[in-house]
Amino acid sequence: MNFFRSIDSTDLPWTGAIFGLTVNAGWYWCTDEVIVQRCLAAKTMINSKAGIFLSMFINFMPLWLMITPDMTARILFADTVACDDINFCSKICGKVIGCTDIRLFLLELKG
31: buried, middle or exposed (CB in 10 Å: 19+, 13-18, 0-12)? Predict the structure, then answer.
C-alpha cells in the first residue's frame, strides 16, 4: 500500500484527493454562504468565532459517533472482527466477506 500511485491508477486518484480536497475544504470554510453569513451577523468577533467553532464541531460529530467506535472495536477485537482468512471468518460469524457487522455488538458486550 503506497501513498503515491501512478496517474492512471484506479485505486485512489491521489491528485484529486490532495489538490481537490484542499480546494473543497478552503471553499467550505472560507466562502460557504452559511458560515460567512453567521460571521457577518454576529455581534462581536468572539460570537463569530464561536459560531465557526460550533459549525466545525457539528461537522466532526459523525466522525466521533460512527467511525471512532468502529475503529476502536477493530483494534480491541482484532482477532474476531479483523479476520483476514475466509475460513476463519466463516467460523466466527458465518460469513466469508468479513465480520464487520458484529463490531458494535462486541463493543457493547465486552467493552
Answer: exposed
Weakest-pLDDT range from 11-15, 21-25, 61-65, 68-72: 11-15
Asked if 14 and 5 count as a contact pair (C-beta separation under 8 A), the reply is yes
Separation CA 49–CA 38 (nearest Å): 9
pTM (two decimals): 0.46
Q: Tell me the three cell numbers of residue 58.
A: 457539528
Which DSSP string do the residues of 34-97 spell out, in sequence order?
HHHHHHHH-SSHHHHHHHHHHHHHHHHHHIIIIIHHHHHHHHHTTTTTS--SHHHHHHHTS-SS
Residue ranges per domain, the chain? Answer: 32-110
pLDDT tens string 32-56 = 777 777 778 889 989 888 888 888 8
